[in-house]
Amino acid sequence: MLKVLEHPLITHKLTQLRRRETCTKDFRHLLNEIAGLMAYEITADIPLREVTVQTPVGPCETNEVIHEIVLVPILRAGLGMVDGISRMVPTAKVGHIGLYRNEETLEPVTYYAKFPGNMPESIIMVLDPMLATGGSASAAISELKKQGATILKLVCIVAAPEGVKRMEEDHPDVEIIIAALDDGLNEKGYIVPGLGDAGDRLFGTK
Fold it and tell me: How crowded is residue 161: how many other Cβ atoms within 10 Å of its Cβ?
């Protein structure tokens, strides 16, 4: 269920995103641009239904999207991907989920969750720039499944093989769409070569 998007424009912008010298303003802009470019691919297989509409000159047999689309950024870095995708899918609704790691159990704990209605019939796109260990993404998707979500996609910019493996083990029914698959994790759990802490770089808190 893993799909790596190898588009020249995405690759070029990701190169700029990775650069250590990229400032907060440019990082935020690039992240939104990459997410917007990815929007075409992550929506390429959404179901359509046949409809007939009246144009100014007559009837037209065509198609329209069946399901609502819901974007769910994982706080806080996932927020940086919402605007880019929303520009391509302006009718998308947006939910939010926040997680922190319990220092004793090292397991993710949900501290905030707010979602639109009609989750079981919607296409849910979980957004997070980084898929490192996969713990947060797996926990977020488990929470969404509790809400009745059945059509789920995980959309990330950069992933480590460890995170992909965790997701495939925990949620084999969820499609994973990324812009790059990196080498792995270092001793601190950062993706290598990665792009640093996406949340800090996005909000200037590094």
Answer: 16
The answer for residues whose C-beta is within 8 angstroms of residue 157's C-beta and 6 or more apart is: 14, 17, 31, 34, 35, 81, 129, 130, 178, 179, 180, 195, 198
* Amino acid code (one letter) for 173: D
Return the DSSP state at 95. -
Q: Tokens at residue 203, please?
A: 């909000």
Query: Is the full-model pTM beyond 0.85?
Result: yes
What span, in angstroms and rounded, lies between the C-alpha atoms of 165 and 188?
Answer: 18
Using DSSP, state whether 74 is helix, strand or coil. Answer: strand
Q: What is the CATH number of the domain that holds 139?
A: 3.40.50.2020
Report whether 110 contacts 143 (CB < 8 A): yes
User: pLDDT tens across 67-117, in order?
Assistant: 999 999 999 999 999 999 999 999 999 999 998 877 677 678 889 999 998
Residue 94 burial (CB count, 10 A):
17
- Name the nearest CA neighbour of 155 among 58, 31, 49, 61: 31
Parallel, antiparallel or unpaired: strands 191-192 and 184-185: antiparallel
Asked whether residue 52 is assigned to any structural domain, the reply reads no
Residue 176's domain spans which residues? 2-47+65-203
Tally of domains in the chain: 1
Q: 184-185 and 58-65: which strand pairing?
A: unpaired
d(CA 193, CA 160) in angstroms, rounded, equals: 10
Phi, psi of 198, deg, nearest 5: -60, -40
